[in-house]
Amino acid sequence: MDIPLHRLLAAAVCLATTLAPATAQTQRATPLDEMNQRTLPAMWFDADLGKPVLFGGYFQYQGWGGSRIQQSSGFWGFTSSGLHRLPGDLTSKSTNVAYDPLRRILVQTGPNGETLEWDGIRVTDHGVDPAFGIGGPGALVWDPARRQIMTCRGTRSAANPLETWHWDGTSWTRATTARTPTPRFSFCLGPDSTRVGVVLFGGTDPQGNTLDDTWTWNGTDWAMAATTSPRPAPLPFLYPPMADDPLRGRTLLVSDGLWEWDGNRWTQAIQPGLRAQALAFDPNRQRMLLYELAGGMVEDEVRILSWDGTLLREEWARTAPRNQGQLTTDLLRGDVAMVHFDPISAAAEVHYGGSRGWTREPLNSAGFQRDRFALAMDPVRDDLVVFGGSDGASQWNGETWLYDRTTSAWRLATASGPPARVSAAAHWDPLGQRVLLFGGYTQAGGWTDETWSWDGRSWSRLQPLHSPPPMSRPGMTTDASSGRVLLAGRSTRSNRLEVWDWNGTDWTAQNAPHTGSEVLSFGSHPDLDTEVLVLDAEQWVRDGSGVWSQPFIDPLPPFLFSMQLAWEPATRNLLLRGHQEEAGLWALTAPFTASWAAAIGEGCVGSLGEPRLLANRYPRLDTPDFDLRITMARPSAAAALLVSFSPPVFNPGPCSILLQPGTAVAVPPLTTDAAGQVALALPVPATPTLAGGAFVTQAAVLDPAGGFANLLALTNGVWVVVGR
């Protein structure tokens, strides 16, 4: 039966936000805007933007070459949904910055004495003021007494006094004072708007001693704060962040805990353990916001906390996956999943996200402890499937673990099946509706050529008529044209790269690049109708006709090792990520519309078991042979195909309708043949307005033995998006 697809998709506009058009990029991969964890960034509330903003800071890399510090840049605005990159940047990464609330301008001084300003969009470079000269000023702060930006020039010489300077938007002027704090550097300044002045705390004297004294500025002169004895003072600390809470009339400082200055004395409000790196008062929330690295400088959990003088709340948290882990695409949610074992929490953590940041899934169980495991998404049972790997002590493993998002828990499914191995390739097989596993390195026999399948309950060793050779570090992906599984790897027999295609029952050798390099990652870009191979020192692309080429003339992104590729449907990027955190995320983008046909959920059994609904390929414009077919159904039975233009119902439980209530329409009735099969042809015309059209479909078969109301057998669902 044929149905014009332009009629079926007349109202197909769902997923328009999920699959919004990507900005056109060059073929070269470009870094994604994701804020790395950092220490000591500048933080303030921007009145024009109406939100807290962070800038700069320092990021510590833990790579193969050891640990090193790098300055960060970029502006990041905070809302309830997280941190988002803002336009503009500063040529200097110096965190000597302060916000001028009167002019609504951010002021920065660089290492060479230059002064720059940012108005929320553009940066103005004022150059070096001859009076100010070249030198290293201390922290910048807003002086409410003079209503100007203020800084103090630190000094490492006992003979040189501390210098106080003000910026009027054009030039710097040095203030003449009767008193001045003793010579020091690495001190911090904080505004005191309630008492109309500035507070200076701590630092290091020229002899290298840390200081814990407090000085106040009234707009004209400095005074050492009068305190009682003994006085509770913050512990000596370099570069402690400070900010003013005008609502409560306090100046807050983080130094091994949270301290508050009321104009006369310090009081410890929160005991040691707080690791806030920056502070800013948010008038929208009427409380102080704290930017914190929960695990310290080299950890990766970023949190925004709030403090109202009584309660410390978590406003938002983001955790980026650590170095070791595996990526896979979750077609059900149009997202990327990453699984890795965290040695600190001793848990197998699951993260969702990618180019838009990462969100850690809740965990009700620790799960496995290993790396070099195989990972695949089972969209029928909505499980993340992990097999094998090593525990880091050269102990190979043959366990299979499943992560269920409904229960937020890992479950050991079985310890039997394929022999223990590392570096195997796993991928979802849409034709067989199962997870396919190939190869891997076993302790007994080295690299193997075994093919296994996982049906959600147990493993089965497959015996295809043709088989790829043993491959070192094989990779799997989906053929962007046919939706079938592709395998690539360097043959241990010929020492050449080989590519094989899986048709659901057998392997077929394909054309391959002439190279003997190791496969580091293998992925598909449905927008471009291509497969991408990343090798030791090469990048290869296969187009829809099966021809391989090397279109990338630039070198690979730096610091990439044991890379992974994953298709991110939400942004239509092919993400590239190395195991080393400094590699970051890279993306191959295109201004096209994605195409996919993903099997989702489970149906309920009939006379011959659970019937299946399958798509023969990914639908694109001008695809005359696209069809949906029902298999394993009751022979010669009436059937109906239900279609909805709304996203599917996730996790409805077994034997359920997967379409949103009240949104389903039925196509003309069908009848299965003697084998219990029927195909519905849905030719896709070359009509540009169909690109991006999406629908969810599920079939019902009349069957007295059916599990739905003892009348019907239901198939799984198929989520279809028409691509360009």
What can you see in these coordinates?
The protein is an all-beta fold and 724 residues long. Helix content is 1%, strand content 44%. The protein is built from one helix and 61 strands. The strands form 16 sheets. Strands 53, 56, 57, 58, 60 and 61 form a six-stranded antiparallel beta sheet that branches. The chain is elongated. The two termini are 24 Å apart. 47% of the residues are buried.
Largest sheet: 6 strands, antiparallel
Radius of gyration: 30 Å
Give the termini distance in whole angstroms: 24 Å
Low-confidence runs? 1-33, 61-68
Quick check: average pLDDT?
Answer: 80
Roughly how much helix do the residues carry, as a percent range? under 10%
Count every beta strand, where a strand is a DSSP E run of 2 or more residues: 61
Global shape: elongated
Task: Give the count of helical stretches.
Answer: 1
Structural class: mainly beta
Estimate the strand proportion.
35-45%
Condensed summary:
With 724 residues, the chain is mostly beta strands. The protein contains one helix and 61 strands.
Task: Please give a handful of descriptors for the protein shown.
single chain; mainly beta; six-stranded antiparallel sheet; 1 helix; 44% strand
